[in-house]
């Protein structure tokens, strides 16, 4: 329920019931002792007061927080009774139990708090109201452990005050004795109604503990709320605030296996191309918050997902669609400039450590492609597959087979492991070149032809090495439950590697295109290059200089590069006179089959 508006009152509730604020969602306000229009009264409130709009046409004015109340009802009788109850209990020793009882019988809300976060019971204890008033509030349902904004409960306040009186002071002995008796009676009443004994820790320590316990539960709950790919941007914003403020030990404790796997899936969603600019913006913020912990495990988590390359793309591109993002002009609240600024900030964080020194995850690491070598398990798999490039032997086949089993186990730990387990991200898989190495392993023949095959020839070779296919079939296939899970994880990893490396502008939610974006032709600009074998004999392009920048070709987004190459060979003019002379000599000649 929304907070109801309580009636404004000065000393007597009936004198100010006509000055209630206009909004039912606003807190109740009591004007200063002088008129609402009094300039001196407004100045006494200060900038920390509440700005209240009045029903009777008076201009808005600021009201002191102690004269503002938050209730769970908009009933005017309850408002008046609640305001009157607060006015009575804050009189301290002069508070009259009969008036308090009358206000409670009129329906005063004992759970209401003022703008300072103080409930009626805590206000009575702080003001030094008689013990019978405290007992009356407790008997009528006041919560004994209600705490103020500082986290101090009524029982704790009484015990602290008793310690201060025991330490001595300048107050008369009769007043000290009377106050001790009142506080002792209040302590007994509070304990009788179930008030918990306060901890020895200071309120600040208790608030920190409460924050950590709350964050510990919320981080895990938000990450596992639903699929990471479908988390709303509002949930991601809350997650960012938690990751930015919580201590490192709390975050690492919250990232239990299920929450950690959800966080890795969320990072993959960010770098693989999200739905809109808002998700990408909060993704940059979350990665910055995680990287700022300066913990090697969490920093490696960010870097291993290719955050540096992703941030470079977002900060440098002018067309967000080329980063896999779709901007909805009528619904998008984030501009490309805002996203570029946040991506630049993430990029700067990744390029330098806290001391400002060059980081091993800087641009040089990306350009060299050796970043993945920090993953020892992936390096071992690659070495095993490369070992069988030589002619097959029982030793090399055994090494390759062990590498495939190790790769399957690595994929399993990636999907099921915890934060301390060895993993393999899609970015590492792409950078290592493992998919291409696996293809060479399956296609390379045991007895190579007489003519050495180049890399492209090996990949395009249509036939397969049956012996190696049988080894692969033992590890990834539909034979057993374990091999079925292995092939499913392998396909998922390969798809993620393609998603991470490529950035085609594909929009899933655009009504006028949808999945047609996968088949509708896109325009590629062709850049003319010089031809010829020796660099000293390079010939100029055939096309005139005036139209060289206008040559384009329309292709499907998923066209094979080989098909595009063969098409360009057929339609591109040849400028090499020697090759043209050779072709002319072939005209009319008979080809003899050997």
Q: How would you sum up this structure in a few lines?
A:
It contains 25 helices and seven strands. The chain has about 600 residues and is mainly alpha-helical.
Write a structural description:
With 594 residues, the protein is mostly helical. It is built from 25 helices and seven strands. It has a three-stranded antiparallel beta sheet with strand order 1-4-5, with no helix packed on it. A two-stranded antiparallel sheet has the order 2-3. The protein has a two-stranded antiparallel ribbon with strand order 6-7. Helix 8 crosses helix 11 and helix 14 packs across helix 15 (336-351). The longest helix has 23 residues, at 394-416. It is elongated and about 130 Å long.
Outline the fold blueprint.
Elements: E1 28-29, H1 39-45, E2 50-52, E3 61-63, E4 68-70, H2 76-89, H3 97-105, E5 113-114, H4 120-127, H5 131-139, H6 154-166, H7 173-192, H8 203-223, H9 233-245, H10 248-254, H11 257-271, H12 277-291, H13 296-303, H14 307-316, H15 336-351, H16 363-368, H17 376-386, H18 394-416, H19 426-432, H20 434-443, H21 455-460, H22 466-475, H23 481-501, E6 522-525, E7 552-555, H24 561-571, H25 577-586
Antiparallel strand pairs: 1-4, 2-3, 4-5, 6-7
Helix pairs in contact: 2-3, 3-5, 4-5, 5-7, 6-7, 8-9, 8-10, 8-11, 9-12, 12-15, 14-15, 17-18, 18-22, 18-23, 19-23
């Amino acid at each position: 329920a929304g907070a109801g508006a309580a009636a404004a009152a000065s000393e007597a509730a009936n004198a100010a019931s006509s000055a209630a604020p206009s909004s039912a969602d606003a807190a109740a306000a009591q004007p200063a002792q002088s008129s609402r229009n009094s300039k001196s009264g407004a100045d006494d409130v200060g900038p920390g007061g509440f700005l209240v709009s009045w029903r009777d046409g008076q201009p808005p004015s600021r009201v002191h927080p102690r004269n503002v109340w938050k209730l769970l009802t908009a009933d005017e009788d309850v408002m008046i009774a609640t305001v009157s109850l607060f006015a009575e209990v804050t009189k301290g020793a002069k508070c009259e139990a009969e008036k308090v009882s009358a206000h409670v019988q009129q329906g005063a809300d004992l759970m209401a708090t003022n703008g300072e976060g103080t409930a009626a019971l805590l206000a009575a204890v702080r003001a030094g109201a008689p013990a019978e008033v405290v007992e009356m509030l407790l008997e009528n349902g006041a919560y004994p452990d209600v705490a103020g904004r500082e986290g101090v409960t009524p029982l704790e306040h009484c015990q602290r005050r008793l310690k201060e009186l025991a330490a001595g002071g300048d107050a008369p002995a009769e007043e000290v004795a009377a106050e001790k008796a009142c506080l002792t009676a209040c302590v007994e009443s509070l304990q009788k109604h179930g008030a918990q004994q306060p901890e020895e820790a200071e309120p600040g320590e208790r608030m920190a503990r409460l924050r950590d316990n709350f964050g510990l539960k919320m981080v895990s709950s938000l990450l596992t709320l639903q699929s990471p790919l479908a988390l709303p941007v509002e949930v991601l914003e809350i997650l960012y605030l938690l990751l930015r403020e919580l201590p490192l030990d709390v975050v690492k404790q919250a990232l239990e296996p299920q929450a950690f796997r959800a966080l890795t899936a969320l990072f993959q969603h960010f770098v693989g191309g999200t739905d809109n600019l808002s998700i990408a913006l909060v993704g940059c913020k979350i990665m910055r918050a995680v990287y700022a912990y300066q913990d090697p495990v969490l920093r490696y988590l960010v870097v291993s997902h290719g955050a540096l390359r992703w941030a470079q793309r977002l900060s440098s591109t002018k067309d967000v669609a080329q980063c896999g993002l779709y901007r909805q002009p009528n619904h998008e609240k984030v501009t490309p400039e805002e996203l570029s600024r946040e991506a630049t900030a993430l990029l700067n964080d990744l390029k330098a450590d806290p001391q400002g020194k060059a980081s091993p995850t800087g641009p040089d690491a990306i350009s060299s492609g050796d970043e993945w070598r920090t993953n020892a398990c992936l390096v071992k798999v690659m070495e095993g597959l490369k070992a069988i490039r030589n002619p097959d032997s029982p030793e090399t086949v055994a090494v390759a087979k062990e590498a495939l089993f190790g790769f399957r186990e690595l994929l399993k730990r990636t999907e099921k492991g915890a934060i301390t387990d060895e993993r393999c991200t899609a970015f590492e898989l792409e950078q290592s070149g493992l998919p291409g190495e696996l293809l060479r392993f399956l296609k390379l023949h045991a007895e190579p032809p007489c003519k050495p095959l180049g890399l492209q020839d090996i990949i395009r070779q249509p036939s397969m090495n049956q012996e190696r296919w049988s080894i692969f079939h033992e590890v990834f296939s539909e034979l057993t439950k374990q091999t079925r899970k292995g092939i499913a994880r392998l396909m998922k990893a390969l798809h993620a590697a393609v998603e991470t490396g490529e950035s085609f502008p594909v929009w899933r939610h655009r009504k006028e295109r949808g999945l047609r974006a996968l088949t509708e032709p896109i325009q590629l600009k062709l850049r003319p290059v010089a031809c010829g074998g020796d660099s000293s004999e390079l010939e100029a392009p055939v096309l005139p200089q005036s139209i060289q920048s206008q040559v384009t070709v329309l292709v499907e987004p998923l066209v094979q590069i080989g098909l595009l190459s063969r098409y360009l060979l057929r339609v591109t003019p040849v400028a090499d006179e020697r090759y043209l002379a050779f072709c002319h000599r072939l005209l009319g000649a008979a080809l003899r089959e050997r």
